[in-house]
């Protein structure tokens, strides 16, 4: 079933790291009580506006307090989420990518053994610029050559990336300085961008694609490592700030989720990639090449301990919120189709946890 994401070997490794079983585990297990009466949520800046909207609606329409939602990035949120149980640790973390095996192991090490995974919909990652400038029409190869730390030298080897303008990358592109503002390594948007866009362009070079069969580590380093000079600027987790900077610098580009493009469509525009514009329809049907699933994760133990978590899940998975005509679509969320949404809704409301294949 779609919900079964982890292998038996992962659990064995996780438990071994914890001492082999719960009885011998010296880390805190799922037993502390809490007096906290307000749900605490951390994680992805991309999921943040969706979680905030649901939290505010939840606070207005129920007897529970409005959940506290913080934007920490997917990686930062999962680190906080997996750091322990009890009063000072978050109940929920948002993620613009799926949880990693290493993060499941960290959770297990710190006594978090039952996690509910919630898929809420889809998002596209855009390369946007100001509407004061020309719309860019790029390929995934163009993106890789513009932003990779090392690029092909034309002789079957790599060289440090010395491209300074988009015209250097592709003679059909304008002679504008490469200046891209993007998320830090803790961001799920960064993870998804390097996997979908950078690697997508990287493997258009046959000899690099073949490297995956012989040296996966070298292949990943080549395809996923972003340059560290002034062509790429880490702009933090505040996507609204990137939008403001694009309006101040018409030659610059920013990497962020479709929802921020949708909310700021009067001032910024999303580049065409591989012939596809970042639109609701193109992301929904999978034709836009830089699309991803969005998630959040819940500590099952905290359900019933911190008031309102189960009810918050019900609101988030309701047809009125994340359904095909739900209010989150107005915020830029690309909903799942009715069948997929119904499957996730049923499993989450049954509080099914991450299980083994």
Topology:
Blueprint: E1 4-6, H1 8-17, E2 40-43, H2 48-61, E3 68-69, H3 74-81, E4 92-95, H4 101-109, E5 115-130, E6 137-138, H5 140-147, E7 150-152, E8 158-160, H6 166-169, E9 180-182, H7 188-202, H8 206-214, H9 216-224, E10 232-234, H10 239-248, E11 253-257, H11 258-263, E12 268-270, E13 272-273, H12 280-284, E14 291-299, H13 309-316, H14 319-322, H15 338-349, E15 355-356
Helix pairs in contact: 1-4, 5-7, 7-9, 8-9
Number of helices: 15
pLDDT < 50 stretches: 1-28
Radius of gyration based on Cα positions: 21 Å
Give me the CATH superfamily of the largest domain.
Answer: Periplasmic binding protein-like II
Looking at the structure, what is the overall shape? Answer: globular
Proper CATH architecture of the largest domain: 3-Layer(aba) Sandwich
Q: H/E element string? A: EHEHEHEHEEHEEHEHHHEHEHEEHEHHHE
Tally the beta strands.
15
Q: What is the helix fraction of residues, given as a range? A: 25-40%
Report strand %. 15-25%
Biggest sheet, open or closed, and with what strands and sense? 9 strands, mixed
**What is the straight-line distance between the termini?**
9 Å
**Helix and strand composition category:** alpha/beta
Average pLDDT, to the nearest integer? 89
